[in-house]
From TrEMBL:
The keyword Membrane applies. This is Simple sugar transport system ATP-binding protein. InterPro entries: AAA+_ATPase, ABC_carbohydrate_import_ATPase, ABC_transporter-like_ATP-bd, ABC_transporter-like_CS, P-loop_NTPase. GO terms for molecular function: ATP binding; ATP hydrolysis activity. It comes from the Bacteria. Keywords: ATP-binding, Cell membrane, Membrane, Nucleotide-binding, Repeat, Sugar transport, Translocase, Transport. It comes from Treponema ruminis. Residues 7-242, 259-508 form the ABC transporter domain. Coiled coil: none annotated. Gene3D superfamilies: P-loop containing nucleotide triphosphate hydrolases (3.40.50.300). Its main location: membrane.
């Protein structure tokens, strides 16, 4: 093979029970290039990269580095070959600090003790060089998903890797952070590092990649040079049809108030200030209200307080009304029964029981009802039939159908399963946080249509998204949150992205008593 390739994955085949995840795939990475890997959810992209990183062993095929065949039996072998990976689902120890997670496995010692002083100095230097600001002493369990992503990237850079695998690195980042990461990736490539970049976001591929390889249902479709292609061609290669990139919807017809939040406050785990400070908002039937803002400004804590995942500060003025019913102190189950559906930000921690089957996860909030239970016994056939109906409707792909363990599914299909469950159960309010995270363009198109159909059916929708394009295209009203407060209410039809960005950055705000259109 040509010596221009630093990594060659030749005729890789990887099988799991009921599915061939990678079917005779050949992928070649040039020295100093950014090579995008594109495909639908479940196409085998993460599996292929996990083979390169040593997490899986292929049944067939070989890996070469600089033309020489290598054996990668585990991640330690990959690290020894200077291969690093930022995982789609973070490999972090939640009770450890940021610093301890970054140095874990490659600790340097001084007089028999871990040299944290030198490690801290180097981590902060990397953090400043690449614009990945973190608090080395914060615990992973207390920081946002976006911050955890930064830790994963710094963990890889700390090990001086020259082959970098980014598996959906922008899925949890804000537009500003994505722009910074794109700059970081270009800088790394200029320094001679070679990057494999898994993403579903075609704009990012067009901006940063040199070449793109496309997979479909575990098979290799082809590789194209980015300057010679466009988004439409890439999407056709990926899903086999033309994809609609703009969101079409009729004007909203708001009805009665479904969600009424009054004076909600939530403490911060990271500092003494309130994460959510006296927030008031309303969402009406038949409208999509989007909370926009840069990650870490209280959106996560607000939704967690609203849904019962986080304690709210006791305050005699605080009220959460759902269709006129006070649900402020109700349990998560009672809120669900009252008509609240929730697509959570962290699908692993709050969305799924990973060791349950897909069908069990589909009825998590309904298994006790008469439809699925008889004299305390689960009606297995009813559960199976119902879950299969959702799997078919939302195109949830897995190796063993509804008997698949949730942990074994791809991230995008895990997300589809959660969305299917929440949209299909009887609800008055849909709360969706980053609902399109990790989804391919075809699935995003379908989900946007499903959310709009939910709105048009008279449901209230509260959306949290860090995707400016999604915020402006999908919402009927935009509420901007900055440092735990609502600082502006905007009309997406008359708001430019630049103006929205000023509110998100705190450079502009509306007075509390100001009337908005």
């Amino acid at each position: 093979m040509s010596d221009e390739y630093i990594i060659e994955m030749l005729h890789i085949t990887k099988r799991f029970p009921g599915i061939v995840a990678n079917d005779d795939i050949t992928l070649q990475l040039k020295k100093g290039e950014i090579h995008a890997l594109l495909g639908e959810n479940g196409a085998g992209k993460s599996t292929l990269m996990s083979v390169l990183f040593g997490l899986y062993q292929p049944e067939e095929g070989e890996i070469r580095k600089n033309g020489q065949k290598v054996q990668i039996k585990n991640p330690n072998d990959a690290t020894a070959l200077h291969i690093g990976m930022v995982h789609q689902h973070f490999k972090l120890v939640e009770v450890f600090s940021v610093l301890d997670n970054i140095i874990l496995g490659c600790e340097s010692t001084k007089h028999g003790f871990v040299d944290r002083v030198t490690a801290r100095r180097r981590i902060l230097s990397l953090s400043n060089t690449y614009g990945l600001q973190i608090d080395p002493d914060a615990k992973i369990e207390d920081i946002t998903v976006g911050m955890q992503q930064r830790v994963e990237i710094l963990k890889m850079l700390y090990r001086n890797n020259d082959i970098l695998i980014f598996d959906e690195p922008t899925a949890v980042l804000t537009p500003q952070e994505i722009k910074e990461l794109m700059s970081v990736m270009k800088l790394l490539a200029e320094e001679g590092k070679s990057i494999l970049f898994i993403t579903h976001k075609l704009n990012e591929i067009m901006e940063v990649a040199d070449r793109c390889s496309v997979l479909c249902k575990g098979r290799y479709i082809g590789t194209v040079n980015i300057p010679e292609t466009n988004k439409e061609e890439l999407s056709r290669m990926m899903v086999g049809r033309d994809v609609q990139f703009t969101v079409e919807k009729k004007p909203a017809e708001p009805g009665k108030v479904i969600l009424d939040v009054q004076h909600l406050c939530v403490e911060s785990k990271l500092h003494k200030m309130l994460a959510v400070n006296d927030v008031n908002l309303q969402v009406r039937a038949g409208e999509i209200v989007c909370i926009a803002g840069i990650d870490g400004n209280g959106q996560s804590e607000f939704i967690q307080g609203l849904t019962g995942l986080e304690k709210i500060l006791p305050n005699h003025n605080t009220k959460i009304l759902l269709d006129g019913t006070d649900i402020t102190k109700k349990s998560i189950r009672d809120k669900s029964i009252a008509g609240l559906s929730h697509v959570p930000e962290d699908r692993h921690k709050h969305g799924l029981v990973l060791d349950y089957t897909l069908e069990q996860n589909m009825v998590l909030q309904r298994y006790w009802t008469q439809e699925f239970q008889h004299f305390t016994f689960i009606k297995n056939k009813a559960v199976s039939d119902y879950s299969q109906k959702l799997i078919d409707a939302f195109d949830v792909r897995s190796g063993q159908g509804n008997k698949t363990i949730a942990r074994a599914m791809s991230g995008g299909n895990q997300q589809k399963a959660i969305v299917a469950r929440e949209l299909s159960k009887d609800h008055k309010l849909l709360i969706a946080v980053q609902p399109t995270r990790g989804l391919d363009v075809g699935a995003i198109e379908y989900l946007h249509k499903a959310i709009i159909a939910d709105r048009d059916a008279g449901k209230a929708v509260l959306l949290v998204s860090y995707e400016l394009e999604e915020v402006l295209n999908l919402s009927d009203r935009i509420l901007v949150m900055y440092e735990g407060e609502i600082v502006g209410e905007l009309d997406p039809k008359t708001t430019a992205p630049e103006e929205l960005g000023l509110y998100m950055a705190g450079a502009k705000r509306q007075k509390k008593n100001q009337e908005t259109a």
